[in-house]
Write a structure and sequence with these properties.
The chain has 171 residues and is mainly α. The protein has helices at residues 32-50, 55-67, 71-84, 89-101, 105-118, 128-142, 147-160, 165-170, and strands at 2-7, 14-19, 26-29. Helix 1 runs antiparallel to helix 2 (55-67) and helix 2 (55-67) packs antiparallel against helix 3.
Length: 171
Amino acid sequence: QLFLALMMVGSTGALVAQTSPKTDSVKVTVSTAQVQTASVIEGLKKQVEANPKDAEALAKLATAYQDATDWQNAILTWKKISVLLPDWAPSYYSQSFSYQSAKDDVNAKLAYEKYISTVKPEEVEASKKNLAYAYYFIAYSEQKGNTDKAKEYIAKSIQYDPSNQEAIKLS
């Protein structure tokens, strides 16, 4: 039997095509979760097309892209939210996560820096874990090039999350 994995357009769900030497027929299997994710994304895309400034629909769409591990579309959608709501820090954190997942550490670092600078004083307490990770990521990125900045950022990371063993190892 021959197995062939195909990527669905706009999603990372895999289709598995199976042919039988006896029949030459093709059987395609798609998981229910993949179909549901694709239909959720399509529904949200239509909602955003109808109202491109609907930040809530955009956030749901960006999250759906992340759930589908469609990092490029997630990044593009989080960027649209950042244009609509430039002071909303979570959109920059989510961009960072998507960039990092897409193995684009340079842009992930820039987005984490933007996240840090956008968190408002009244949001710090609720954002400690995310701030700790953002500082850790930047410190890790800077450890070979700018050791002073790396030390400063690792100290900040530990300040926000004293239990972070990875940050403690890096310090």
